[in-house]
Amino acid sequence: MTTQQAPAIRVQGLEKSYNKVEVLRGVDFDVERGSIFALLGSNGAGKTTIVRILSTLLAADAGTAGVNGFDVATQPGNVRESISLTGQFAAVDEILSARENLVLIAKLRHLKNADTIADDLLERFSLTDAATRKVSTYSGGMRRRLDIAMSLIGNPPVIFLDEPTTGLDPQARVEVWDAVKELAEQGTTVLLTTQYLDEAEQLADRIAILHRGRIIVNGTLAELKQLLPPARVEYVEKQPSLEDIFFALVGGDDDEGTPRNDRGAVRTK
Ligand SMILES: Nc1ncnc2c1ncn2[C@@H]1O[C@H](COP(=O)(O)OP(=O)(O)OP(=O)(O)O)[C@@H](O)[C@H]1O
Ligand SMILES: [Mg+2]
Q1: How far is the CA of 213 from the centre of ligand 2 (A)?
Q2: 87 Cα to the center of ligand 1, angstroms
């Protein structure tokens, strides 16, 4: 398979345990080029573990993973050149300004036109007005936008966003969503992890739910909605929300992973 024909991300039979705890127990999914793929799961489901394996920071116990046509285990250098990773916690330097942060990264990546790259990204992420202020004075949304802007330096074809809006207020989340949508419109493949169902609903072309070490569903929002019939209340038809679908599928487990409702029944309101 050539690099061009391969999906942007291909994960097959991925397994990972920490000590004796099996976190990933055979994870499979593909992400098409230029699409936004949301990996949805509860705390501790293994989302960050998948992102760390795909970005070559962690080795899987079994299975294969390819990014941009390169194998993460045997071609880690090619994978790293193809990606950028925005971690769960913002990695911007507080005592520098947004512009200084961007120029610094561009220079670290040996790009010649660091100033132009910085100015373009500031404009694209609506940070031009605050460009010369120290990041320590920024709001959470501005920091996140800067974080994403920094990860785009060098135009990687694939970007990983691990919980890009955790801890942000609703307005800041919408700003980050707009930035992510714009990325995909320009052809970048985005894999994002989230615990927010509305985030997946808003952004993703495809949504996969990771539960107990496996992908239990993978589809478009429309396909996921078909898993639950709309509930009828007199004359009003209620479409299931992604939240209804999520809880019907994961079954309202408690923290120990013990199902509270093990009838396998689909919950409707
Ligand atoms: N280095 C490690 N050593 C031992 N256990 C780990 C390690 N890293 C992760 N785990 C465990 O693996 C499981 C999956 O963790 P992971 O961080 O991938 O989950 P997550 O889906 O990203 O969760 P969150 O939504 O909280 O970020 C958790 O139970 C976690 O405690
Ligand atoms: Mg995580």
Answers
A1: 14
A2: 14
The confidence score (pLDDT) of residue 90 equals: 60
Ligand 1, from 21, 22, 43, 48: best to mutate by most atoms within 8 Å of Cβ? 48
Mention every residue, 6+ apart, whose C-beta is less than 8 A from residue 123. none
- Closest C-alpha to ligand 1, atom 5: 18
Which tens digits make up the pLDDT trace of 111-131?
Answer: 999 999 999 999 988 899 999
> Could you give the angle at which helices 140-151 and 98-108 cross, rounded to 10 degrees?
20
Ligand 1 atom with minimal separation from the 46 CA:
18
Task: Give this prediction's pTM.
Answer: 0.83
Output the DSSP codes for 27-42: EEEEE-TT-EEEEE--
Q: Please give the distance, rounded to the nearest whole angstrom, from the Cα atom of residue 2 to the centre of ligand 2.
A: 32
Query: What does each C-alpha distance from 75 to 88, 109, 219, 236, 248 come to in angstroms?
Result: 25, 20, 29, 54, 39
